[in-house]
Amino acid sequence: MATGMKISDSLLRAKKQVLDRYAVLDIVIIPEITEVIRQAGLEPTDFVVDKASLKAFVEKPNTHKEDDGLFGCVYYDHCTKDVIYRAQCKITFAGEDVWDETSIFKLEDYRSGNRKWLRFSGSDWQQGPGEELFSVDEITRKV
After folding, report:
1. Given a cut of 80, is residue 129 above it in pLDDT?
2. Looking at residues 61-88, what average pLDDT do you find?
3. Residue 67 DSSP class
4. Can you give the pTM of this predicted structure?
5. Could you give the CA distance from residue 63 to residue 71 in angstroms, rounded to a whole number?
6. 28 in Cβ contact with 100 (< 8 Å)
7. 3-state SS record for 18-66
8. Is the pLDDT of residue 58 over 60?
9. Residue pair 2/45 in contact by the 8 Å Cβ criterion
10. How many other C-beta atoms are found inside a 10 Å radius of the C-beta of residue 36?
11. Which of 35, 110, 120, 143 could form a disulfide with 79 if both were Cys (CB 3.0 to 4.6 A apart)?
């Protein structure tokens, strides 16, 4: 006797998965990103979502996990003539729970070749995790 799932059941599950991701976006990611941007003294409406990271977040299967257990990350960027800002929200799914780690980084004088990212600590900007944390060309091309 064959067992299995109907195609319509698969489509409903896939649709629910996408809807759940948008719920995580609305309930967790956007508020967390907005808060970290405001804490850094910046205006959230100046930032735009990185479409590639959003697409990857929405389309990954629920079973996806990086080596460190991370499910995915959504980025929001803002560029001025002297500074690039990147806010990120890392998401991990643990059963029914959603865990996030939200940070904001800035890169000053990027046009002069500086590649040392700073990370906002909650009260001030401190040395970030290193050079070439994010691709400057990729960010400036999209924003």
Report:
1. no
2. 88
3. T
4. 0.81
5. 8
6. yes
7. HHHHHHHHHHHHHHHHHHHHHHCCCCHHHCEECHHHHHHHHHCCCCCCC
8. yes
9. no
10. 20
11. 143
